[in-house]
Amino acid sequence: MSKDSCQHWGAAIGQIITAAWMLALVGTAWAAAPAMTGAAAVPAGAASSQGQQAASTVLDDKIRSDLVAATVRLNSLEGTIAKSTERADRLSDRSAINALLIVIVSVSASLLGQWLLIRHQRTLNREQVQAEVANSYVEWQLKQLSELYGPLRALLGQSNAMYRQMNRALAAAVPDIFRLEKRQGADFDNEIFEIRKDGEWTRFRTVKHIGEVYNRGYGVEPYFDDVVETGARMAELIREKAGYARADDKDDDEDLMDVMGKYLAHYAVLTRLHKQVQSGYERKANTADEHATFPIKMQKLVDEGFNAINREVMEWRHNRPEAA
Hints:
Blueprint: H1 3-41, H2 49-173, E1 178-182, E2 191-197, E3 200-203, H3 206-213, H4 221-241, E4 250-251, E5 254-255, H5 256-278, H6 287-291, H7 297-319
Antiparallel strand pairs: 1-2, 2-3, 4-5
């Protein structure tokens, strides 16, 4: 019940009680008046008018006294009703406040629960996205290994092995013209193959010196043929899979993509010169051809990229959640 409603009903009850008391007092007064008048008139009629007035005055005083007492009692009753009404209002207000607090707490708890749920879901989604990105990146790295770095590294190893066999055969056959010596950092295996020209030792480069050894009776033609054939496979691989090269594979501001481009230029010159010497034509000196030498950096960059990818993939396998 609202405060205004309680006050309305309290006032109404007070008015009803007051009216009831007043009616009761008036009725009592009217009932008492004839009796007292009759009682004064019963004696042999000897009563005087002063006696009658005195009796009437006593009756008025009695009625007035009763009305005052009734009024006091009514005021007291109204005060009690008002206090009860105020107490009911306070209880009603307290109940309303408690109900409001309960609603606020419930709504806050609901909102907090929803926020925690959304936050947890976002965390799960973020972790899922990160895992998907990591998986996609690893898949790309595995393709780099299987499509470019692995095959190219194997072909380089085959080409280097055939080239070194040719070097050793020449150094053993004509040691005063050819030699293979240890030199740190000179090549992929810290060895260098040299040819003696005009009394000076200089590094042997295939596009420069193929005419000095091919079809000269040294028996190294099969090695050169194998090197050129392997080079053809490398050139085809680079043309088709160069897009898998890592941008991080650099040496002296020259990345693997640039170096592979240089190899394609080297192979184009090498195949042309190889056909010339195979056909018995004397190789003609060409300054441009001599600059199209094998890019020694390619072996180093391919090895570094291959090892870096392998290391990252192994770290991913070790740290992925399934392995934890």
